[in-house]
Amino acid sequence: MAVGVIVPVRGEAPFLREALRSVLSQDLPPDDVVVVDDASPQPVELDAAVTGVVRLIRLGERGGPAGARQAGLEALGTDLVALLDADDAWEPGKLAVQVEALDRHAEAALCFGRAAVVGADGAATGERWEEPEAGALAPDGLRALMYELNPIPTSSVLARRDAVVAAGGFASSVPYGVEDWDLWLRLLAREQPFVCEPGARVRYRRHGGGLTADLARLAEASMEIHERHAALVPEEVRRRARAADLTALARGRVRERRYSEARSALAAAARLQPPGRRERVLRSLLAAPGARNLLGRRDPYA
């Protein structure tokens, strides 16, 4: 099966060269690679070394990651579509093991792998990503986990084109940063199984310019995802997810020094689910003006 790769990018892309190098150096190289410039103010330029090997498409209007990926999908004619964000990178052998996994699991809509989280300097951050069990994953056993959080590193995904198109494609009206999560849930709503291949490893980069750096915005986007796909899970799971969203929103508001809104969000979360120790401590600190001035100064991913 032919494999195409979509790499969306906007603005300065200091890690794009590393990302493309990780794709082109795979022992099973892809058949097509498309970089989609999402209407960057200054047009993206590719290194001469990849000209003629990698195609560059420039959008006239900004479409966000979902719009850029959809443009890439429409430009590709391959059976399989691999995703890679411009600030991430694939580890050697990633693509070959995934093609083999999809060969073994003909019913799976997509294959995803594992991520090592690194900082802007490439050093490991120590963060652990939720890791579903390896092998075939049926929708019934995956819905609750996938609803509560997104355990799939987007840059690790190799998907069947037909399944993505049938689910509505990459285009999505949800906020930036959770479009991929929306697609995974749309696939599960269609009873599409997934497969996890631990040998498909990627480096996921955390940095201040990343779309997930704004915790409050990401929490609000997560709320929208949970409202949109609420029918997938029981009420207990919905309440738990809502409480987690409100707690994350509170932490985001703390970093913005919007303390009253943070207290309100924590109180709403506590009405849905008993707060843990960290949440109780945070509520105590927010109640003391002197103590709360020490809050909101940490790294956005801490």
Notes on the structure:
This protein is 40% helix and 17% strand. The protein has eleven helices and nine strands. It has helices at residues 16-24, 64-75, 94-104, 139-148, 161-166, 179-189, 215-228, 235-255, 259-272, 277-286, 289-292, and strands at residues 3-9, 32-37, 55-58, 80-83, 89-90, 110-118, 135-137, 158-160, 194-205. Strands 1, 2, 3, 4, 5, 6, 7, 8 and 9 form a nine-stranded mixed beta sheet that branches. Helix 4 runs antiparallel to helix 6 (179-189) and helix 8 (235-255) packs antiparallel against helix 9 (259-272). The relative contact order is 0.12.
Roughly how many Å apart are the termini?
41 Å
**What count of structural domains?**
2
Q: What is the structural class?
A: alpha/beta
Point out poorly predicted stretches.
none
Q: Taking all residues together, what is the mean pLDDT?
A: 91
Order of helices and strands: EHEEHEEHEEHEHHEHHHHH
The helix count comes to 11
Number of strands: 9
Anisotropy-based shape: globular
Strand % is 15-25%
Largest sheet: 9 strands, mixed
Alpha-carbon Rg, integer:
20 Å
CATH superfamily assignment of the largest domain?
Spore Coat Polysaccharide Biosynthesis Protein SpsA, Chain A
